[in-house]
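Encode chain A's predicted structure.
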Amino acid sequence: MPTDNPLLQYQALPRFDCILPEHAQPAIETILAYAEPSLAKIEQSVTPTWKGAILPLRKLLEPLDFAWGVITHLHSVMNTTEWRTAHDALQPSVIAFSLRVNQSDSIYKALKTLRSGTAWSTLDETQQRIVAASLLDAELAGVGLPNEKRERFNTIKRELALTSTQFSNNVLDATKAFALNLQTQADIAGLPKSLLAAASEAAKLAGSETSTAEIGPWVITLEAPLFVPFMQYSTQRDHRETLYRAFVTRASSGDGDNTPLIDTTLKLRREMAEILGYTTYAEVSLAQKMADSPSAVDAMIERLHSVAAPAAQRELEELRRYAAQHGETKTLMNWDVAFWSDHMRETLFEFTDEDLRPYFQFPRVLEGLFDLAHNLFGITIAPPESEIPVWHEDVRPFTIKDASGADMATFYLDPYSRPATKRGGAWMNALRPRQQTPDGKITLPVATMVCNQTRPSNDKPSLMTFNEVTTLFHEFGHTLQHLLTTVNEPEAAGIHNVEWDAVELPSQFMENWCYHRPTLIRMSEHIDTGEPLPEALYQKLYRARTFLAGSSTMRQLLFAALDLELHHRYRADGTLTPDDVKRCIGSKFSLMPFIEQDRFLCGFSHIFAGGYAAGYYSYKWAEVLSADAFGAFVEAGLNDNDAIIQTGQRFRDTILAAGGSLHPMDVFKSFRGREPDPNTLLRHQGLLEKEG
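Encoded structure for chain A:
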């Protein structure tokens, strides 16, 4: 293949500085033009061996995986009209070829023969896992379906990809389109200086060149760095209501209405499941997860609900009493909860998020995070020795080295919110897996780590909320799992081939270190005084760790239960709409009733435009694993650094090293010495009394 197109240079780091939307179409067309006849040759010569089946497919797919991975990444972080057009035009061809590979009868038969033949015993456990996963992938991709069913199945897959992309675009557009314009001092009552500075910057982006933090005007958008603190601090109840209503009705009207896309998605997913011989889409989803059935998910949800529900109800009653005692004369509404919760926390624990923010300068937090990684896992993280191209000036590349100084991996950190072109949320993408080439060399893994935290302003670094700190740690956990793997087979290296409901283990595990006193003190430095976080303030933060734990658990259970209901028991040809289902599930899991206009499903990208369909429960499932994993450090002694180092090395050698080479339960037991205890999470959150 020609290599003048940067998207075809898949054996090097991406040349992000010169990759343009116009490179996408010729690159993908070139790759597919080469791949189609190559696949036909593989099908003719495939043999039931590792070298005769898996290795040819790996070589075939590597250029496409790289190019399409870069394109989809840039579509997420540089969402211009040009990148949208390029991505959307190529997506059907990429999906069609992927289905062509997975639906290859000759390759499938060769792999089945390999699994049942004498050559199976010559494969190691990692290779056997890869073959088994490849067979299941093929079966869930419709291999062996009669022609008519296969044609319909493929049509459904293409339509689902299109609806997913459109859903995501609609949410991004709706988020960008809304702005709450604030003009007077009354409008900004209660807002802290940090938010006013960010709102002034948003006003400038909206065209107000003269805006300042002191005199305005100010703009509040639906982006988290503006939306969340405004709901916490604004004393203007009518403005909070306006903002809340805008948030829960995103992408629910006009040309960007996601309502028909939800209907189409649920209908098509069930039809696809039935074509594959399953009853519901949830059964299809769970075929590749630790939880092997919807009933197993139901059981987990019910167990957590039985403990969290009464605690959450008590919390809500306490919040109502507190609000009434402090001047709230009206019935507590959805747009009041964050405001009064923050006030109540301030009263109980004597601090606010704004008290913490000056201590968490992004550069210092990042340094502290990297120091923690060095202490726990024996790695060194630093900027690359030579310049690495990036896609935006915000982006910072890093290399990871082991204790001997040898390179292990590269990752890119894109930390700040860019509402105009970057989708919301935070995520990690695997740009390249670790693998050993035929000549014995190791290709090192590459990842992108994306957040949407508060931007720097007025020549000051980004001052992070504590939630932004924990989000950074969370995404770094995902990044570490992909980059610290020791697996040399790319199909099972890093996050590849890890069951979806276990993939959040390292990320949620890392969040716990945000409350570890030495870690927190080390990464804090007041923007004005240079002093670390005071001991008294740390103690308040730690005590507040379980504040409203029942309510936050119920919120996650609401999303998990609703997701499962829509993908398992709901039928599009029934009398209920998805919104009806939401309200029904909400009557059990939501402490505050949804307002009549609520359409938050239209913004529920996790399940309609992400990888969490019939899998949102994974956050809580993996949180059970992560809480118990952190328990090993608690037991070893969080004040004993030698014990932390020893336990951290064991965590690296098991949880982080294994990737998808072993079943997650086997990996967990290799670290913990036993299966996870679900009650550990409940005790960790203060919802169960500690034993003894």
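The chain has 26 helices and nine strands.
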